[in-house]
Write a structure and sequence with these properties.
Blueprint: E1 10-17, H1 19-32, E2 36-38, H2 52-74, H3 94-139, H4 146-150, E3 165-173, H5 177-188, E4 193-196, E5 201-204, E6 211-222, H6 224-236, E7 240-242, H7 248-304, E8 308-309, E9 316-323, H8 327-341, E10 348-351, H9 369-376, H10 388-403, H11 407-422, H12 424-428, H13 435-442, H14 444-461, H15 482-487, H16 517-550, H17 554-585, H18 603-612, H19 631-678, H20 685-697, H21 702-726, H22 729-753, H23 759-800, H24 817-821
Antiparallel strand pairs: 1-9, 1-10, 2-9, 3-6, 3-7, 4-6, 5-6, 8-9
Helix pairs in contact: 1-7, 1-8, 2-3, 2-7, 3-7, 5-6, 9-10, 10-14, 10-22, 10-23, 11-14, 16-17, 16-21, 16-22, 17-19, 17-21, 19-20, 19-21, 22-23
């Protein structure tokens, strides 16, 4: 299970590597994934670091592979996954590997350029053939002259218009054809003859490979000036213009020649695609292994750039964080690599002191990883504080199940999660790009526990697709005659009359038939939400005690934990006690009238009167206002204790810390001054820095402490009210889920399919059941499940974790090849410092 209670203990180490063994050592450490290196060259410009040339070479090879991957995606070439993950590309193999990649890139670039050129030529020929085939029928056998188009003036030998006719034919994108036509009309002021083909065509863009829809057009105008305007419009709309022969015979001859050229070009394109796909498939077989090797090598050199060289330039010095449990493994790795390489001085690692806060690292397995991810989405634990992920394993699915209680819906969740768990080996070996699937698969054990807990709460709610089942004799007993039952639609069952033993398996199934079942379910689930919410908050507050003990904040136990627990207990835990007292003290079969449910005081009124310090009035004249004698005195005492706790929480911690900081600051300053007096060399700077950090730690003013504590106190006092009310979402969502499930059953399945008992009713039942099943899965399971999940997440992040969890740490991010290859690591893109190769243009 790993360390889930608190963060793994971390050690700050100095690591010393020999240059000839540095690459292999860092490579093995990357395979282990248990060291977080610290950059010691933050102030050094990136292009001045020791291994920047090697990083740039790896980045250039990665760029070449990315280019080839893009070409494979264009041609939909399958890239198989590697069976065995290769090791990093060794330094002595880099030249050979660069030559191989350069050769393949040059071949693929040449093939791509040739293919794009052929596709451009094919596109032009196809467009020209399309224009002639669709514009030609518009012209018929006539020649394109002004006499044939405009005719002659009646009774005269001169034409109506003077000047040369200009004929423009071409193709324009379909979605821009109308704006193009309007622009031509505006530019020519209507002095134009414009027609479009009746059918458009779909062509392929040679650059992107996407399909484009174009339509042919014919435009005839008169005069050179108008012709130049039209050419500018065509250029602005990126219209491809093609010449159209003036006679019918010439057009037919050109169409035949175009068909022959297109046929020859298609054969050339088929052969070009064949050779291109053959080359890309050969690259695709080795692509995954090549990319893995290059990414590993680039990551290794990036880590080596974090090291510094000593004065002799014969040793790489670095700093890192290592979990205590992994220190022996790392030491063994350093010794083993030194022996294999045969260095004169072995690589080693030594512990050192630091003022930096260690990173937080929680070891998880495939079961606990999903629960820890829910906590990490809110924030990373402060180093050493209790991890909420451990308690979330139980509390999260339980609170979810309270809002999602239905046995059949729980079975659906268990079946889905169980299928993912049983098939996890198959899916873990495959890397999926579907983010939604990755979320579901990563949380498969969370969903499994949510389903199991839903089975339990659904059993207690007696909910099976909104229908109850009878496991024993119900509590209510029929005492009516048959005639009374037949003559009355509703009958009143008196709990003070003769009844059966209590129904011990959850909610009595008879309540499903009751007219006032909503009132009963409301009361039950609302009180249940208050009880569970207050217990959950008190549990969270009790965890803060262990944090105070761990961090040796013993003053906080008396000045924060005990007053906060008293404040929460005297007010709201007393509310829980009143709920249980009302359940146990007031029963319908009690011989005392004052102990019957009709005389039970309203708990909400009692609590409000307690806070307002006013006297409560009895429900009826013959009833008591309180549940027991001296209840008002007890409530007044509890209220006073809660009120007294507020100033203790507000002023106690700032006053104590102010006096403590003053005393400690004087002591630390005295130690620093004594150290500086006897300091002899620059190597003693670390103890001095540590002392200065101690001085800064105790330099907080009383005003800062008071403001911080005032905000904390106000937040705690107000949140006790708002957080208690927030747990009522357990009641609201549970009731909404139950009512929605009942509505789908009654309105769809029962009303439309279960009322007919013949052959047609069977067919109708099958069809209606399919509709009901779709609505159940999509609305009740998926949407309602997502809603309950988000509300449960909020109850943990805000109401529960705010009582003990600060989340002020930062995560442990080890140098790990697994994180780099599968996208879990932060990408700093150091190759931005490299000189980029100009982009290939076609």
């Amino acid at each position: 299970m790993g360390c889930m209670l608190r963060s793994d203990p971390m050690t700050f180490c100095d690591i010393y590597l020999q240059p000839e063994a540095a690459f292999e050592t860092v490579s093995r450490l990357g395979e282990m994934g248990c060291i977080q290196f610290i950059d010691l060259n933050v102030d050094v410009k990136p292009f001045l670091r020791n291994y920047v040339s090697e990083v740039c070479r790896c980045a250039e090879m990665e760029r070449k592979l990315n280019y080839m991957e893009g070409e494979m995606l264009k041609d939909k070439i399958f890239v198989p996954q590697m069976e065995k993950e290769p090791e990093a590309l060794q330094p002595h193999e880099m030249n050979t590997f660069e030559n191989i990649l350069e050769k393949w890139e040059d071949d693929i670039v040449d093939m791509a350029e040739n293919q794009v050129g052929l596709l451009k030529n094919y596109l032009e020929l196809t467009e020209m053939s399309y224009v002639l085939n669709h514009i030609g029928p518009m012209l018929g056998d006539a020649e394109i002259t002004r006499d044939s188009i405009f005719g002659r003036k009646a009774g005269a030998g001169e034409p109506i218009f003077g000047g040369r006719l200009i004929v423009i034919t071409g193709v324009v994108r379909r979605n821009r054809s109308f704006p193009f036509e309007m622009m031509l009309w505006r530019v020519s002021r209507g002095n134009i003859y414009y027609r479009q083909a009746s059918q458009d065509t779909i062509l392929q863009d040679p650059q992107t490979g996407q399909e484009i829809r174009k339509v042919a057009f014919l435009a005839i105008c008169q005069g050179e000036q108008l012709s130049s305007r039209m050419e500018k419009v065509c250029s602005g709309f990126r219209v491809n213009v093609y010449p159209c022969p003036t006679t019918y015979d010439e057009r037919m001859d050109m169409i035949n020649k175009l068909d022959l050229r297109i046929s020859d070009l298609e054969q050339v394109l088929r052969k070009t695609r064949y050779h291109r796909c053959k080359a890309l498939r050969m690259v695709g077989r080795q692509f995954s292994g090549w990319m893995t090797q290059i990414k590993k090598s680039k990551a290794i050199y990036n880590v080596m750039n974090m090291f510094t060289l000593d004065i002799t330039k014969k040793c790489l010095i670095g700093q890192c964080w290592v979990p205590d449990n992994d220190l022996p493994r790392v030491q063994d790795t350093l010794e083993r690599i030194s022996e294999q390489v045969g260095t004169n001085v072995p690589s080693f690692m030594s512990r050192t002191e630091t003022v930096q806060e260690p990173p937080t690292y929680h070891r998880t397995n495939k079961f606990t990883k999903g629960f820890q991810a829910l906590i990490n989405a809110y924030g990373d634990s402060t180093y050493g504080e209790l991890n909420p992920g451990l308690y979330t394993i139980i509390t999260f699915p339980f609170l979810f199940a309270l809002m999602f209680g239905d046995v059949c819906h729980g079975l659906i969740l268990v079946a889905f999660a169980g299928w993912m768990v049983l098939s996890e080996k198959k899916f873990m070996d495959k890397v999926s790009g579907n983010e939604i699937w990755n979320i579901f698969f990563g949380g498969r054990y969370v969903i499994l526990l949510m389903g199991i807990f839903t089975l339990f709460t659904g059993f207690l709610y007696n909910e099976y697709f909104s229908k109850p089942i009878i496991l024993m004799t119900p509590f209510w007993k029929n005492t009516f005659e048959r005639e009374e039952i037949e003559n009355n639609e509703y009958l009143t069952l008196n709990p003070s009359a003769e009844t059966n033993p209590p129904y011990i398996y959850g909610v009595d199934p008879i309540w499903k038939l009751a007219k006032n079942k909503i009132m009963y379910i409301n009361s039950l689930k609302m009180k249940m939400s208050i009880i569970i919410g207050i217990i959950h908050m008190m549990f969270g507050l009790s965890l803060s005690l262990f944090n105070h003990i761990h961090f040796k904040r013993y003053y906080a136990i008396y000045l924060q934990f005990i007053p906060q627990m008293l404040f929460l207990g005297c007010l709201f835990f007393w509310l829980v006690i009143l709920i249980y007292m009302k359940w146990w003290m007031f029963t319908p079969k009690s011989p005392d009238l004052k102990r019957t449910p009709g005389c039970a005081p309203l708990i909400l009124i009692l609590f409000i009167d307690m806070v307002l310090m006013s006297e409560s009035a009895p429900v009826e004249d013959d009833c008591d206002a309180y549940m027991f004698d001296s209840q008002r005195k007890v409530q007044f005492m509890l209220l006073m204790i809660a009120v007294v706790c507020v100033p203790i929480i507000l002023f106690g911690t700032p006053v104590y810390l102010n006096r403590y900081n003053k005393r400690m600051r004087k002591q630390v300053l005295k130690n620093v001054s004594n150290f500086r007096r006897y300091q002899r060399k620059d190597s003693d700077r670390k103890p001095e820095d540590h002392g200065q950090a101690e001085v800064d730690k105790y330099s907080h003013t009383f005003g800062e402490l008071m403001i911080h504590q005032a905000v904390h106190t106000i937040e705690f006092v107000l949140s006790t009210i708002s957080h208690t009310a927030s747990y009522l979402r357990l009641w609201a969502l549970s009731l909404a889920h139950e009512q929605l499930s009942e509505m789908l059953w009654v309105m769809i399945l029962a009303k439309l399919a279960l009322r007919e008992h013949n052959l047609s009713g069977v067919v109708k039942l099958v069809m209606i059941f399919a509709v009901w099943a779709v609505f159940t899965l999509s609305i009740l399971v998926v949407m309602e499940g997502l809603s309950a999940f988000l509300h449960t997440l909020r109850l943990h992040w805000v109401e529960f974790m705010s009582k003990f969890y600060t989340g002020g740490g930062y995560p442990f991010r080890p140098f790990s090849f697994k994180a780099i290859l599968y996208g879990d690591s932060k990408d700093d893109k150091p190759e931005a410092i490299c000189k980029k190769r100009p982009k290939v243009e076609y």
